[in-house]
Amino acid sequence: MELSTLYNKVISAAGVSYDSRKLKQGEVFFAIRDDRDGNQFAENAIERGAAFAVIDNPEFQQPDGKTILVDHALETLQELARMHRSQFKGTIIGLTGSNGKTTSKELVRDVLATKYTTYATKGNLNNHIGVPISILELRDEHEFAVIEMGANAQGEIRLLSSISMPDIGYITNIGKAHLEGFGGLEGVKKGKKELFDNLRERNRKVFVNASDPVLLEISEGMDRILFGTDVDSPDVYPLQQSPTLSFGWSHHHYVSPEVKTQLTGSYNISNIATAVCIGRYYDVSPEDINNAISGYVPENNRSQRTTTTSNTLILDCYNANPSSMEHAIRSFAEGNDTDKMVIVGDMKELGPDEEKEHRAIAELISRLGLEALYAGAAFSKVVDDPSCSFPDTDALKEHLQNTPVKGKTILLKASNSLNFSSLAAHL
Known about the structure:
The chain has 427 residues and is an alpha/beta fold. Helix content is 35%, strand content 19%. It contains 15 helices and 20 strands. Helix 6 packs parallel to helix 8.
């Protein structure tokens, strides 16, 4: 089948899915060979109501046009996304970075949505499968799309940028994330810079936090919209850190009132500043910007503050790397909460830097004088104290059951694979 013919069939369907368990009636199922061979689930997808399945193994063909055989299902999905992108008339903002991608994306989405019909990447669909799916969800009514791009290695942002072809871009920061896949911090820098490389080649603009010397360096010579220190940009500043973050900002003759948010941690100021800057650049009113940011509710264990019958919890355990862990701990230590405790778990994908980075976090916690509990094999190697260090999350749960913690404000931070969100039931 011609790619253009398949494109028309896909765009006419209810949507696109690569997970037969989550597929909705009328969507197209793409049999992606990833952790598992998606061809094995094509029949199930059809039974669940898929319009048809795009497969790349002839053994799984179904009668009555319910399957369409291609050479490579993933590459076909990506090519269809490129075709759809070429026809999209709205503005695409490409966004990546080591920390804060999702929070920045959602704040920018909510600010722009006060004035424009805005689409943003859903959940964590930010990889080689998720970005094409996100692009294919764009429709004529969308005036803006905020496309989040994640990566574990060099070359991945280059691919995602070639698919999404953003009109303008932003990098939140460049830190110690996925060090193993990127080959160290310099590799992270090269990998994240691939977004700016794509935009530079096409003479497109970038938003740059002028207080970040690394971002200033890699964007040198580009058409930049600076914020953070530039006199012509919005000046955003924290006013209060706890129980939740509040901020103020000024731009030209405008000075905001105190804007209260539902976020925790001073590190979120840069995410807020991004949303303010982009909102003002696209003529969103200051009042709408303030309302959008104050109304934003974080989800998925990202800077979520909640209260149990025994403690106040700050759930920041969707993911963790040395940079985000340090920022979260320092911000927590600086806050006004009393009776503080940190419960931290292993940071993944650090390669040969694993022991060094975990030791650095443990030493930081000690220097700050914070009461702490640790979980995971990596932390167990550097914190040799069975009263506060546990080999895994289950062992920590058992400790919490036997030694209940009460009356504390607790920061929980770990990589998602440690399932730290399950600790809330024991705190």
